[in-house]
Amino acid sequence: MTTLAVLENLTAKLPLGVCVLNEQLEIEYWNDFFADRLNISCDQVKGQNLLTLFPNEAKYLKKKINSVFVLNNASFSYWEHRPHVFLFSSSRPITGEETLMYQNIEFIPLHVSNNVVKTVCMIVQDVTELASYYQGKKQLSEELAQEHSALLALNTKLEAAQNQLLQADKMAAIGQLAAGVAHEINNPIGFIHSNLQSLQDYSTKLLNLISFYEKVVNKTQNKTFMALQQEMQDRSQYSFLREDMPELINESITGIDRVTDIIKNLKVFSHVDSSEWQHANIIEGIENTLKIANSQLKYNVEVHREFQQPLPALFCQPMQLNQVFLNLIVNSAQAIDGKGHIYIKVSASSTALVIEIKDTGCGISESAQRKIFEPFYTTKPVGQGTGLGLSLSYSIVQKHKGSIVVSSELDVGTTFIITLPLLTPGDLETPS
Amino acid sequence: MIYQLSELQRDALQELMNISMGQAANSLARLIGAKITLSIPLISSVTPTEFVDMISSDVMWHTRQSFLGTVKGEVVSLQSHAGCEAIAELMDYELPLSDITREELLLELSNILAGACLNGFAEQLELTTKLSMPTVFEPEKLSPEHYRWAHTLLMEVEFKVESSHFDSKIVICLEAESISTLLSRLNSLLE
Questions:
Q1: Each residue's pLDDT tens digit, A138-147
Q2: Which chain A residues are Cβ-neighbours of B133 within 8 angstroms?
Q3: Assigned domain for A189 exists
Q4: Chain B residues touching residue A72 (CB < 8 angstroms)
Q5: B89 close contact with A: CB closer than 8 A
Q6: Which of A217, A243, A269 delimits the end of a domain?
């Protein structure tokens, strides 16, 4: 075989497209790669203009090939940027998902004389396999990245939930502790209270007795006795003692009454017997709750009450409802920065009680409003809110077959409206 | 192996570089029709760590392109983020650039500059070498500990397109064996 024959055989079998172009971009040669795909033999195509043959990509091809002629420097086209310069069908028509061949193309100065490029050779490489592999991998890594970020988000959520659970646990433990302490304190408080009352009684009697003796001594007109009495009274500062003692005892009794009150409220809220259904006066519950919440309210919040009278007694779990009122009132107080107002309105229809708690606080954003009844949702700093208050309230109201709705405007305030139907014991299929 | 270039060799190499870089600048200027300024070519021998330090930059895009022939090595190009769009406009790309068209532009630019630099340089020293396709390169992923070479000879030059604040650096890195080939050619030229 001659070298030419070898070369002809070679270019015919080459898995590459080879096309030679002159300065007018007329095709001087192309190999079987082109000829077979386009059904135009090398002899037929000779002298035809490349750009008229491939009008769709004419602009791009012209630019690329011209730069080779001008600069005497090879130029490249990548499948990533221009996947299908020549619209050849896929090299995998049966098993492949691709319909068009992905191509890398090299444009090289072929015949150069005196630094002037006379012909340019275009070499087309079929990289469909590579491209589909690469694209598959890229898609996979995108999916992985997506899953990864989803997992990360889930992790953070779990972590937050765990923190909240811990917090809820802590709160429950504190509640139990408070209940225990309240119970323990109750007894000593009881006898201190009754002792103080006896003491008050005794001291009154003692003072009366002394007054009587005073009068008796004075009656005698005996200078010596009277002087002695005066001296003794001066020495023990009797006139001051007589004034101060009843006051001291009164103050102590008031103090111990307050302690008793607090203990009572603590017991009320420590879930002891809290699920008992009974007929109760809602107003009483609200007042009790306000006392409990007092420490949160007294400095900057003014509470306005508007209670319709008389109200029918409501068949309910009073302690649980108090819990709802407490959550709402405390939330309102916390939403108020500086001075503010809380309006509590209770009204009744023939079928239901409506309790409206309105504040002039910071309000709740619309996106947050959709979530506030979700368990563990909180906007308070870690450690301050459990995210359970409103979800608990929601479930309590549901147990009462009632509804709780919120309306809020940022920087204006929030209103919660609780509607509780007037139930009878028979309405509850499974009273808990 | 450390290649200690003599003063004479360095000067000669610098002059050769100057000429070939001039041709490269001329090519680019012809293609985009804008004025191009050139820095004085820098010739240095660097260790892997110095190499990584030198080409690491987060305000530049990077490409690499290998060449084969009587001398072998790689051309690394650094192209500034700034001025990219202006160059794209000069080169008749559709604006705004997408990630794909930007990559295409960078590869085309680096191919033109690297080709012109290397061809001019090889021609004068009567070396034959052929560049392969350039690819995008992320030097953040480099770790100098993994390099199998201790020193390489770098020839670098900076091109600036004044009208558009575009800045590009071409670094020709020679493989160890090719350095001796280069030096012997240089010596015969100097005799």
A1: 999 999 999 9
A2: 76, 78, 104, 106
A3: yes
A4: 119
A5: no
A6: A269
H helices then E strands: how many in chain A? 13, 12
Cα gap A218→A226, rounded to integer Å: 6
B108 touches chain A (CB under 8 A): yes
Subunit contact A80:B119, Cβ cutoff 8 A: no
**For position A328, which CATH number holds?**
3.30.565.10
Query: Could you report the per-residue pLDDT of A111-133, keeping only the tens digit for each?
Result: 998 888 999 999 999 998 888 89
Which residue is it, tokens 């916390």? A334
Mutate to test the interface with B, among A62, A67, A71 (most CBs of B within 10 A): A71
Q: Is the pLDDT of residue A431 over 50?
A: no
Record: contact A71-B104, CB cut-off 8 A: no
Distances (CA, A) of A391 to A164, A315, A342, A395: 13, 22, 21, 6
Q: Is residue A150 part of a domain?
A: no
On whether both A305 and A362 belong to a single domain, the answer is yes
Q: Classify domain B7-190 at the CATH superfamily level.
A: CheC-like (3.40.1550.10)
Residue A265 and residue A172 share a domain: yes
Chain B segment 111-170 residues within 8 A of A by beta carbon are 111-112, 115-116, 119, 130-131, 133-134
The kind and range of the H/E element at A346 are strand A340-348
Residues of B in contact with A70 (CB under 8 A): 27, 30-31
Q: Classify the complex by whether its ipTM is higher than 0.85, answering yes or no.
A: no
Suggest the residue from B67, B119, B123, B135 to mutate for an interface test with chain A (most A CBs closer than 10 A). B119
Please state the rounded mean pLDDT for residues A298-324.
Answer: 86
**Subunit contact B119:A72, Cβ cutoff 8 A:** yes
**A116 and A176 in one domain?**
no
Residue A82 lies in a domain: yes
pTM summary value:
0.57
CA of B115, closest CA in chain A: separation in Å?
6
User: What's CA B163's distance to the chain center, in Å?
Assistant: 22
Domain assignment present for A179 = yes
Distance of CA A354 to the CA centre of its chain: 29
Q: Which CATH number goes with the domain that contains A110?
A: 3.30.450.20
Q: What contacts B26, CB < 8 A, 6 or more positions away?
A: B116
Residue A41's domain comprises: 3-126
What burial letters (b/e) apply to B156-171, b meaning 16+ CB within 10 Å?
bbbbbbeebebbbbbb
Q: How many domains does chain A have?
A: 3
Where along chain B do its domains lie? 7-190
The token pair at A350 is 């023939």
- Looking at A217, A245, A269, which one is the last position of a domain? A269
Q: Tell me whether A73 touches chain B (CB under 8 Å).
A: yes
